[in-house]
């Protein structure tokens, strides 16, 4: 048996964690031979709910669940962690725009970035789920100068999985047989779900679907799926978000399937002409705990325009929080 890994989860008593933690404890994320220590973090007023959740986890008697610790502050909760799943954020209610959340979440992610810098393991891998996820990842990363920005990621696997599920439903294919979908840009309504490289049973998807459906039905459906779920449930997606977190981390750590492409919000190195330094969703492959951008995909002018639109939104978000960001240091490159 391996040595246990330490995983911190913020917003640990929330709806996403309520699905997620049972998957992590049962080995779905890190593999069936990897024991886990869960360092669960919540706001002080939510500690009773968290205690209840910890009791339920204990009552499952998971062989891989080594220890659970509960914390009401990130400084303690991030101690020595190998992985951070940053789920807690001020949630969006019906009719609220993601940009409304920028400032209130900037404060939360500034503190979390500092705490990761000071208390986490030097190799910590961070996934930001709380919205606006891409810009929250930027804020956390900029506040952690001892860590590389490449250790921070933002969740766009939920959009990727949505695209796969909805395309499977439309074409009658099994999701398992659909590959090479790409989500470009922000986890927001400007994202560009790109099917130009996608395949169903190794055949190009674009030969099997109507362009009009792709442009006028599929793309807006993926872009607005989060809001549509909020309208229907009055709360954000939870179980599907938890599944996406598992998929993102599992692929990052254990590697993507041969030939497969997944989407991750990562710091831009300028690939595909995207401005360096923002957290933008790219097509990636993972191996041995590292991700690499898939280069050389052909992008039409039509696609470029969409990529630029979502880039522009991320630059606007960055500008809106810029006064809160510490100056860039050498170590943060
Ligand atoms: C989702 O995509 O379901 C969420 O990010 C929606 C939201 O803004 O909370």
UniProtKB/TrEMBL annotation:
Substrate binds at residues 92, 98, 131, 162. Gene3D superfamilies: Lactate dehydrogenase/glycoside hydrolase, family 4, C-terminal, NAD(P)-binding Rossmann-like Domain. The keyword Oxidoreductase applies. The active site is at 187 (proton acceptor). It is an enzyme of class 1 (oxidoreductase). It comes from the Bacteria. Belongs to the LDH/MDH superfamily. MDH type 2 family. Catalyzes the reversible oxidation of malate to oxaloacetate. This is Malate dehydrogenase. It comes from Marinobacterium lacunae.
């Amino acid at each position: 048996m391996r040595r246990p890994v330490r995983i911190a989860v913020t917003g640990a008593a929330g709806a996403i964690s309520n699905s997620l933690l049972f998957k992590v404890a049962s080995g779905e994320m890190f593999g069936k031979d990897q024991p886990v220590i869960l360092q669960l973090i919540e706001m002080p007023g939510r500690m009773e709910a968290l205690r209840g959740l910890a009791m339920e986890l204990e009552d499952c008697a998971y062989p891989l669940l080594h220890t659970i610790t509960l914390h009401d502050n990130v400084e303690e909760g991030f101690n020595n962690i190998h992985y951070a799943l940053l789920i807690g954020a001020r949630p969006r209610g019906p009719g609220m725009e993601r940009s409304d959340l920028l400032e209130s979440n900037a404060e939360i992610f500034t503190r979390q970035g500092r705490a990761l810098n000071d208390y986490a393991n030097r190799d910590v891998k961070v996934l930001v789920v709380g919205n606006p996820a891409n810009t929250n990842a930027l804020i956390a990363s900029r506040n952690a100068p001892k860590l590389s920005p490449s250790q921070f990621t933002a969740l766009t696997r939920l959009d990727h999985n949505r695209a796969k599920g909805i395309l499977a439903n439309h074409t009658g294919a099994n999701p398992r047989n659909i590959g090479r979908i790409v989500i470009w840009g922000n986890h927001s309504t400007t994202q560009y779900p790109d099917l130009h490289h996608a395949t169903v049973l190794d055949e190009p998807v674009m030969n099997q679907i109507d362009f009009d459906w792709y442009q006028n039905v599929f793309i807006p459906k993926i872009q607005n799926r989060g809001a549509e779920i909020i309208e229907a449930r009055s709360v954000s997606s939870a179980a599907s978000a938890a599944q996406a977190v598992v998929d993102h981390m599992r692929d990052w750590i254990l590697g993507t399937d041969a030939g497969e492409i997944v989407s991750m919000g990562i710091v831009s190195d300028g690939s595909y002409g995207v401005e360096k330094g923002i957290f933008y969703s790219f097509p990636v492959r993972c191996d041995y705990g590292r991700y690499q951008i898939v280069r050389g995909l052909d992008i039409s002018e039509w696609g470029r325009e969409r990529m630029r639109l979502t880039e522009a939104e991320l630059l606007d978000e960055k500008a809106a929080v810029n006064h809160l960001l510490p100056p860039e240091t050498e170590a943060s490159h």
